[in-house]
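re: that complex we talked abt at group meeting.

here r the seqs, copy pasted straight from the sheet so there may be weird spacing, ignore it
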Amino acid sequence: MNQSQPPTVPADAAPPPLTPALLARLQAVCGHDHVYTDADQLRTYESDGLLQYRATPGAVVLPASAAEVRDVVRACSDAGIPWVARGAGSGLSGGALPVAQGVLIALTRMRAVLEVDLPNQRIVVQPGVTNTEVSLAVGPTHFYPPDPSSQIVCSIGGNVAENSGGAHCFKYGFTTNYVTGLEIVLADGAVVTLGGKELDHPGYDLLGAFVGSEGTLGICTSVTLRVIPVPEAIKTMVAFFDTTAQAGEAVSEIVSGGVIPGAIEMMDNLTIQAAEQAVGAGFPTDVGAALIIELDGSRVECEACFDDVVAICERNGAIGIRIAEDEADRALIWRTRKAAFAAMGRIASNYYVQDGVIPRTKLPEVLARIEQLSDEYGMRVANVFHAGDGNLHPLVLYDGEAEAAGAEELAGRIVEACVDAGGSITGEHGVGVDKKRYMPRMFEEPDLAAFQMLRCAFDPRGLANPGKVMPTPRLCGEVPGPYRRHPLERDGVAERF
Amino acid sequence: MAHPANTIRSEAPATALDAAELLHACALERTAVRIAGSGTKAWGYPGAEPALRLQTTALQAIVEHNEGDLTAVLQPGVALGELDDVLAAAGQMLALDPPLGAQDKATVGGVIAAADSGPLRHRYGAPRDLVLGVTVALSDGTVAHAGGKVIKNVAGYDLAKLFSGSFGTLGLIAEVAMRLHPRPRSQATATGTTDDPATLATAAGVLAHSSLELQSLDVRWRSSLGMVLARFGGVAAGDQAAAARRLLSRAGVQAAAVEDDEPLWEAQRAAQRSAEGGAIVRVSGRPSQLADACVAAQVAGGSLVGRAALGVSWIALPAAAPGELVTSIARVRKVLAPSPCVVLDAPAYVRTHLDPWDHPEDAALVLMRRVKARFDPTATCNPAIFVGGI
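got the structure back, here u go
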């Protein structure tokens, strides 16, 4: 079938309402107060951080322990009811969008730090612990590097599901590089321990397969993370350029010269204008690009590299360089960067954010393409991105519902430009529901079939977060053994691939 | 036990699709296939002698070297050593430095499939951390891609990690996209020696928890003498090594700066391999177990090298009667339990008479069998060598 066609079955094809028997069982597991079924309560959970999508679950349950999670999942399995795990609900791809009439498992009550083991540089937490709380728990000597902009609220369970990144991941890596152990509950209720505090547990790297699987392979109830010593020194600067192309050249030269900055972030003129209005950090609003460069590590290494970086920026046409004089100034610079999304409200009533990735060297040509598309659609696009790893966050600005469809279409064409440049449809936000329609741009049928092999090994009945990631609904065949038709297939609702 | 070489058919497909078709044909006729690179790592259960050997000798191309993006797309048969020469010309490297085996033949595909690594792992991670994307040939005859060639990407399942360390049991890694790094501008090493395992562990711990940016942090223990080795790379490597030397002195070990440090590190890598008739036990431990691991190695008459901050060590047991090796390995495992102690190099007898993987029959193993059943339901690819006899 033609992969670019819309799915033949709505992803959220509604199962029947939850039975009183299932609700009673969920209440027995979590307590009456921790099973929500009132319309008002359910509405809170209709969307995650991506408000364009809504679905009302049949019930929201809030388990307080790994055993309760297991029992909730077993109850759903026995009833054949799909479920979705949700952390803080700050995701931007609709990954925690409920299944209509399904069960939503909110992990917000599981917020315990289970163990801090600094001699071995590990921390064990429940999934509802926030990203920031992890660094606080191991500070001030150690920290947890992945730092999504939402880190104050977003949960580690959600980070595991999405393989979250952040500004510092170019140097330090992503969530997947820090998870050494997981306890997970599979959709059939089996509890599986993957890895531990030790690296290199024998067998398949199921940790690697699970992290970033967007809640479709199971639900984690305990997470063991590697933490590292805080750097001795941090030096932060902002260089201003006439054009994003010049700033991009500077990035390439810095990186290829052997310096790996802790963070290297670019904001274009429109973003600077909005962020400056919001924060007032004193960034010039008439420049083409601002490049925030942060070096961290040992003091001698930082200082030795810093002069190099300044020289590279000047050589590539920097028209001004601001060096953070103290921690307050550094915080102000970062507040400007992290305010970029929220600040868009000052220059437009709505925005649609994308998360494409490109090879860094393709930056000038992709930015030119975005500008061309922006002109074609008559909509402004602000660009803010993690320049080191080529992760773009173009913000398509629009006013009113009338422009929403056009903005979404424009955003889609930007994603296509990223894929055409050899990149990816998503660098850190995940596919969720929002980007699954772009998956066929990046992956062909055999690739999707291989993805499905993994999914079927973990969750052959497709109860864990169905309707996400894969562009079309798929069923799992029996393996091994004779072929049997799935009830949905028999009814003509879905087809087998 | 081995059949004469001429009874085993050998094929070297030139494309991923050819490889997939070959695997599929074998799956249909239920012929077991041994997938291997240059054969430098005979690990795991010996398995049955296969009817067909799938070699990667016709897949030796460096498909792309994207200098500006610090990425490379490689076929699996590329020799790691030869690749390094090519990347060095651009001032870059693939930060994987496992021992390269006889005639430096270890291939990119083999190193990734076996999840092997060397001292650079401290800073740059294992193969799983450097693989950006894979193309795999499966026994259903298809060629599938996952990941991409950009360093940040969360689209689709991370099959690149699933195939890293899968020992060819899910299919052939037919192409990989890897992240590269700039070669450090200068390197310098500080060492600390002591004859006390606990002091050695303490000194290594001081560096592991310091804010110095280490490229590698290794230890070794042999003949009742231990050494911490700290290597720095970068603009100010010498200054950092001097700082490390001061920290080591304060931690009570005999500290020194080493000018010509390459032989030291070459020896660390070489010690991850066994002499003929001996065995290597890879301990997936915790840094806090380091002293115990040194003692366990000594009691068994062996030696140890390890990545101090990562808790991973390699205990080398000298050549002995296979039965004695089995006993020694069991003793090491008992001391270091529950940390997995995987037997790598060892005579086939040893790898038959104990579980080389040290993997319990647990829920994770059940799940691994389900993964295998989905990707290779006919058990065509490298059967019976992996955990649980997968």
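couple things i noticed - Chain B has a mean pLDDT of 96. The CA atoms of residues 20 and 142 of chain B lie 6 Å apart.
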